[in-house]
Please model this.
Amino acid sequence: MGAPAARPSPRVGSARLARVPSALCDLTGRVALITGASRGLGAAMSAALAAAGADLILWSRDTRRLTQHAHHLQRATSRRILTQSVDVTNQRAVRRAMQSAARAFGRIDILINNAGIWGGDAARRLNRRTWDAVVETDLTSVFFVSQAVAPIMMRRRYGKIINIASTSGVLAIPEGAAYGTAKAGLFHLTRILAVEWGPHGIRVTGIAPGVFRTDMTRDLFADQAWYRRRRGEIPLRRFGEPEDLAGLAVFLASGASDHITGQTVVIDGGASLTF
Model:
């Protein structure tokens, strides 16, 4: 008996191929909620999603900066934008804000869990108050915000949840016991939620940035000796800028990544390869 005949490859016309990249990453009609959206990585990712066509729900505790950022985005993109002052560690406040946002837009298709704090200290000196604050903000809140948005996504049988982890979750960074442990937990939380919520059409992925130039890392960049030494060890010979997350955030939020779930993508210029 001979081998089965090979199935012919589907033919795709050149005109359709030309439309594929832009169409797959088009977020027109989608609604995205971004936590920690007033500055740094959150501000950059929200700008990228708005440029790709998404309407936005922006959360932060810094009302002044959040309002300024929203006004800038509205002038630049004309998207619908709702700003909400939300403490993501307050589960009751999260649920109220989520319900209000869902009523305003009728849907929430994308969630980026970006809110986080550093709280670094040597393990021997690390106190309970700092440990609890970091773990509650960087890990526990991600679970409860995701849990609050899940029913909204499940009703439409579609959703994208993107958790912002860190390479500190896979590397043993000195003075990063609380932060690194919380971010390591995000890697596994992402996998668990992907398995449980995949049958409901929800894709859960993560982004693990290396050292990016933000308010959180200002002290690091002020140390010129450290800056020059570490930059020379990075294969791409530069640190990340918030805008470097734009393409990856849009990709994971869009239809271009619809068959990806449970994965966390490292974006660090290759720095973790040489740590």
